[in-house]
Each structure stands twice: as structure tokens, then as C-alpha cells.
Amino acid sequence: MTARADPLLDALSGLPPGALRLGADVGAGHARDMSMTPGVLLRPGSTAEVALMLAACNDLRRPVVVQGGRTGLAGGASPREGEVALSLERMRDLTEADPLTSTIIAEAGVTLQRVQEAASAGGLRLAIDIGSRGSATIGGVIACNAGGIRVISHGMMRQHVLGLEAVLADGTILSRLGTLVKDNTGTDLKHLFIGTEGTLGVVTRAVLALSPEPADLAMAYCALGRLVDARGVLQSLQARFGRRLSAFEFIEARVHAAACAFGAVSPVPEGQGPTP
Ligand SMILES: Cc1cc2nc3c(=O)[nH]c(=O)nc-3n(C[C@H](O)[C@H](O)[C@H](O)COP(=O)(O)OP(=O)(O)OC[C@H]3O[C@@H](n4cnc5c(N)ncnc54)[C@H](O)[C@@H]3O)c2cc1C
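A: This is the predicted complex of the input protein with flavin-adenine dinucleotide.
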């Protein structure tokens, strides 16, 4: 179908500039690995525009793939033949951290790192951290229910979402942006959108729970001879520190070597390298 003959473009003709890209203007970055560059890229700037776009796609039975930072490793953001891509890259509003409720409200396209930095500026932190923090978006992290290096003490992303706004495939907006930890006013629908990778709706905004920055942090870097020893180290640290052990990560020898070559970490002394 040529762009001109596409009825979706007629349905969305009232969109503001920048909200829609076609053909070569889409950019190869919106493809992933072996997937194809989508012919139509929708770039909503607001929840209302997400609703308008999804309703139009739904009416025309056009399949949609939702894209955040496109760092996911399972291919969920990779467009397939005939799919329209809907990227949250223009939805980047972020409030300041609220010290009274220990929360922050982020639109779906805000990167995890920006939220971490905003929380830190308020003396608080979002206790989720993953290597893709600089590109992964709040919408994507919620959609994947990401874990990361602090998962053993702080749980997965689900534990940090207090309120959520999402748009269903027909354009219906569901909004429950409460900031309360204790909220048992009816069915908590937000859980339908956490970890379901956009299959049940598009996450547009979230209220995230923050916690105080720890007063002090200590890091131990252990070089082990065998993988099985990592479990023993973890168990003894947990026995000693309980929930104060905030993060734990195992690094394979080849990954460690690559990080050293890149200059990101220091090599361990000769003969004491990590598990092959
Ligand atoms: C270096 C690196 C380290 C990582 N480390 C970890 C880790 O330690 N733990 C861990 O759990 N994961 C890890 N990940 C994967 C991690 O889950 C993703 O990076 C991140 O959660 C995806 O966010 P994204 O914005 O890039 O989403 P995308 O990759 O764009 O999308 C991921 C999925 O979510 C859907 N989606 C995106 N945005 C929305 C939205 N607004 N509404 C609904 N659906 C949406 C997409 O359709 C797709 O199915 C890592 C990835 C990398 C590259």
C-alpha cells in the first residue's frame, strides 16, 4: 500500500507536525535486529494522541507494535510486516520528586536514568537499576516488569509502580494515578499492564514509588574460581546483612574481559580472575 492510499493517514490527518513519520523519514533505528523498518511511525505527544492513534488503528484493523527505548532483548518492540510502530519517544514529561509522598510522575518515554537523576536531586531514589538505564524508558521498563541488579532486595518494577495511566487498543484511557501505598479501592487494574509488553494496552504515565537514598554504600568485588561459589557468597552476604544487601551481580569472565578492554572496570590481579 502506498503512503497516499493508506486510509490510516486520512484518519490521522489532523495530527500536529512531528507526530507521524513515513517511509525513509522513519529511520532504521525503529527496526531491531532482523526486523523491518516500519512504514508508518506514530509519535504521540500526549495521552490523548495515543488514544486517537490507537482508535484509528483499531477501526482499520491495523496491527501496532509499541516502542520505548528499544533496548528489550526479547524482540517485543521489533516491527513485523504490516505493523504500524507507535513510539513513546515524544512523551517525556517528568515531575520533580515529591518528598511528601516519596513519589515521582513520569510519562512513558522518560528514560530510567532521568528518573533516577530526578529522584537523586530530591534525596530519594528509584530502587530499580539496569544496564540499559540511559535508553530504556519507564513505559518499557514497566511493560517488561524489569528486575535488574537490586531485584534481590527491592523487587521488580511492579513493586515500584503506585499508579498508572494506560490506553486500550480501542482508545479508551484508563487513569489511576494515585500516590498511596495503601489503596484498596477496587480492582487494581494497573497490574494488567505491568509485564505484559504492550499486549493489553499502551502505558502512557506512571506514579513511581521512591525510597530514601542510603546514607552509605559499600561495594565488594569478588573474583571467584567457580560459578557455584557465587551462590555461597550470596548466601553468606544475605545471612550477614539481610535486606541491607541491596544489589548482587554475577559477571562472566568474557564479559569482565570486554569491560576491562573498554576501560569500564579495573582488571583483577593475575591468577585471581573471575569464573571462566
Ligand atoms: C544492557 C542491558 C541490560 C539489561 N539489564 C536488564 C536487567 O538487569 N534486568 C531486566 O529485567 N532487564 C534488563 N534488560 C532488558 C530491559 O527489560 C529493557 O532494557 C527495558 O525494560 C525495556 O525498556 P525499553 O524502553 O527499551 O522498551 P522496548 O525495548 O522499546 O520495549 C520492550 C517491550 O515493551 C513494550 N513497550 C515499550 N514501551 C511500552 C509502553 N509505553 N506501553 C506498553 N508497552 C510498551 C514493547 O512493545 C516491547 O514489547 C537489559 C537490557 C539491556 C540492553
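The beta strands are 20-22, 40-42, 64-67, 84-87, 103-107, 124-125, 161-167, 173-176, 202-209, 211-212. The radius of gyration is 21 Å.
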